[in-house]
Amino acid sequence: MILENHAGDRPRIAPTAWVHPTAVVIGNVEIADRVLIDPNAVIRADEPGPDGTVGMIALEAEVNVQDGVIIHALGGGAK
User: Fold this and answer.
1) CA–CA separation, 60 vs 2, rounded Å?
2) Would the pTM count as exceeding 0.70?
């Protein structure tokens, strides 16, 4: 599932990336070329910081996110 967050941010996924149909990608996420997102992985950029904005999670080229991995940054956390 590819979903936008409450702020209207929608994931940006390179055409050469592959996201398994059971993976969930939410919000301010950028996925570069040749990235692989395996089954049941979750990548969430959906929690606003104190200023109300949602920080970005960026996966650079050729990253491999394995089965069941969860990537979620807390709002207002370190970048």
Assistant:
1) 18
2) yes
In the chain, domain spans: 2-65
Active-site choice (4, 47, 60, 62): 47
Cβ within 8 Å of residue 33, ≥6 positions away: 14, 16, 17, 61, 62
pLDDT > 90: percent of the chain: 78
Does residue 62 carry a catalytic annotation? no
Domain 2-65 = CATH 2.160.10.10? yes
CA torsion through residues 68, 42, 57, 47, sign: negative
List beta partners, residue 42: 24, 70
Length of the chain as a residue count: 79
